[in-house]
Write a structure and sequence with these properties.
The protein is of the alpha/beta class and 535 residues long. The chain folds into two domains: 1-147 and 188-293 and 474-535, FAD/NAD(P)-binding domain, CATH 3.50.50.60; 152-186 and 297-387 and 415-467, Cholesterol Oxidase, domain 2, CATH 3.30.410.40. It is 26% helix and 21% strand. It contains 14 helices and 23 strands. The chain has helices spanning 16-25, 45-48, 102-111, 119-129, 156-168, 199-207, 256-266, 272-278, 313-316, 318-331, 417-434, 437-440, 457-467, 517-531, and strands at 6-12, 33-36, 130-132, 146-148, 183-186, 191-192, 195-196, 213-216, 219-227, 230-238, 241-253, 269-270, 284-285, 291-293, 297-305, 343-347, 358-363, 380-387, 394-397, 408-410, 443-447, 469-470, 500-502. The strands form six sheets. Strands 1, 2, 8, 9, 10, 11 and 23 form a seven-stranded mixed β-sheet that branches. Strands 5, 15, 16, 17, 18, 21 and 22 form a seven-stranded antiparallel β-sheet that branches. It has a three-stranded antiparallel β-sheet with strand order 14-19-20. A hairpin with a 2-residue loop joins strand 6 (191-192) and strand 7. Helix 4 (119-129) packs across helix 14 and helix 11 (417-434) crosses helix 13. It starts with 5 loop residues before the first strand and ends with a helix.
Length: 535
């Protein structure tokens, strides 16, 4: 009788990367895999309905993480929503499908020594993963597990925003993942047939019937078990009790940019001083664990409308909500089929820049995300912006040796003066876009958080520091590379420990200039080839 506690591979984390790996590894029936997720299943209808994003950035499907007080942001404690559910962030996000620019990946290869990760070398993994309903080769895949589609019916206010962006001077862009990222247009989204297509849906669901795949939910990984300098399994907390599972080939940590360094540190792998302060025995010195954390710092502006025409009607007017529900159930169309984050743009922060470095998201609604207040005066829309290449770097450290305690997360937003400068420029451009004729005709008033008045540069800087927040894109805390600060090799193997890899957004040496879900899927696709020695 086979040992029910022994597997070939154990994947610690059932988020985007973990779901991709579970599918690809178990495609070989001779390989057994255990996938462990701390959160619940993704069966809640709110997760599968695209517009459900508006209800998911707070609640039982996210970790409830908070930053330490941010010294460059008026000492604010900033909520840091991350998915605690099968599919991870891909099950609660706004489903925006962007990959970044080719220079992002070329820089990984050339500046950070990540051989095999240049744009040309990772292209095949993007195409392998993508199932695009409109676009095709050579830039897009059509048969991949990750469904990608256009908005079925963009909101009239989103159409107005796209026209306003052109009036501001941005070219219309029908494909932000095409030959140029620059411009304004409608985001493609990770949806299929009017439903969310997370990695849990696209990758894990087709593999769940496989006898060589075991999936645990509501199970916390307490640590990786080491035998000397070899990973041999994991210790978990399941049903309130500790259990141990053995991995004969590898342990793969896929907990995301906050939990992956936490798991390594709980396992005695990390910076010796940080481990000592948490009371953890030092088993392997690796100072880069938990360092290099960074994220896009988001700034929001709410605009009150002259007429009651935004998607706010769905949360305030019961007949509108009921009608939208019936339309969605019958046809998979209407307001509930919208991801809410419908329109977007990429622009240049400074004249002479060769690639865009400011990204915008337009929402035909207000108060959608947790912590972002709706206008009190009527119905509204939201435009947010962020600098895509932040220079500030933070950290993730243990708060204690208790695996159930949250880590100390310091994104260190706006520590670098250039991040502040570019964030200010993003707010300036946001305001200018929204004053263009196509949008201005709909707007009654601009509402800046805190009632701010923005005239001088100092006013803008104060606003940025007082209201900057996460874009839900944390990366880099287990960075890949060949420097002393790197945690994993270009093969994603943890330096100095055999049979242990990290596979998720935490391995990005530098953040991509876009949303991070599609790049995380790519990382996991390539990791599967590395693990199976097909790369």
């Amino acid at each position: 009788m086979p040992d029910s506690t022994a597997f070939d591979y154990i994947i610690a984390g059932g988020g985007t990367a973990g779901c991709v790996l579970a599918n690809r590894l178990t495609s070989n029936p001779e390989i057994s895999v255990l996938l462990i997720e701390a959160g619940r299943s993704d069966r809640n209808p709110l997760i599968q309905i695209p517009a459900g994003f508006a209800k998911l950035t707070a609640g039982p499907y996210e970790w409830g993480f908070r930053s330490v007080p941010q010294k460059n942001c008026d000492d604010r404690v900033i909520p840091l929503a991350q998915g605690k559910v099968i599919g991870g962030g891909g099950s609660i996000n706004a489903q925006v499908f962007t990959r970044g620019v080719r220079q992002d990946y070329d820089d990984w290869a050339h500046e950070y020594g990540c051989d095999g990760w240049s744009a040309k070398e990772v292209d095949k993994y993007f195409l392998r993963s993508e199932g695009n309903e409109r676009l095709a080769a050579p830039l897009h895949g059509t048969e991949g597990p990750l469904g990608v589609s256009d908005l079925a019916n963009p909101h009239p206010l989103t159409r107005a925003f796209v026209r306003a962006g052109q009036e501001y001077g941005l070219p219309y862009n029908a494909d932000f993942n095409g030959t140029s990222q620059h411009g304004v247009g409608y985001y493609q989204t990770t949806t299929k047939d009017g439903r969310r297509c997370s990695a849990a849906v696209g990758y894990l669901r087709p593999a769940r019937h496989r006898r060589n795949l075991t999936v645990f939910t509501q199970t916390h990984v307490a640590r990786v078990v080491l035998a000397g300098k070899r990973a041999v399994g994991v210790e978990v907390i399941r049903g309130g009790r500790p259990e141990r599972f053995h991995a004969s080939r590898e342990v793969i940590v896929s907990g995301g940019a906050y939990n992956s360094p936490k798991i390594l540190q709980l396992s005695g792998i990390g910076d010796p001083a940080a481990l000592r302060s948490a009371g953890v025995d030092i088993l392997h010195s690796l100072p880069g664990v938990g360092a290099n954390l960074h994220d896009h710092c988001d700034l929001d502006i709410i605009y009150e409308l002259k007429q009651y025409q935004s998607m706010d009607r769905l949360s305030r007017v019961r007949p509108a909500t009921a009608a939208a529900g019936l339309q969605y159930l019958a046809y998979r169309r209407g307001p509930l089929a919208s991801t809410v984050v419908e329109g977007g743009a990429f622009s240049y922060g400074e004249p002479g820049h060769t690639i865009p470095d400011i990204q915008f998201h337009f929402l035909p609604a207000a108060g959608v995300e947790a912590g972002i207040a709706a206008t009190r005066y009527g119905y509204g829309v939201t435009l947010n912006s962020y600098f895509t290449r932040p220079r500030s770097r933070g950290s993730v450290r243990l708060s204690s040796r208790n695996p159930l305690d949250p880590p100390l997360i310091d994104p260190n937003y706006l520590d670098d003066p250039y991040d502040v400068e570019m964030s200010v420029e993003g707010v300036r451009q946001s305001r200018e876009i929204m004053t263009q004729p196509s949008m201005a005709r709909h707007i009654k008033a601009e509402h800046l958080a805190g009632g701010a008045t923005l005239r001088s540069t100092d006013d803008y800087v104060r606003f940025v520091r007082a209201h900057g927040r996460t874009s839900y894109h944390p990366v880099g805390s287990c960075a890949m590379g060949v420097t002393d600060a790197a945690v994993v090799s270009p093969q994603l193997k943890v330096y100095g420990i055999d049979c242990l890899r990290v596979v998720d957004a935490s391995v990005m040496p530098r953040i991509v200039s876009s949303n991070t879900q599609a790049p995380t899927v790519m990382i996991a696709e390539k990791a599967a080839d590395l693990i199976l020695e097909r790369a």
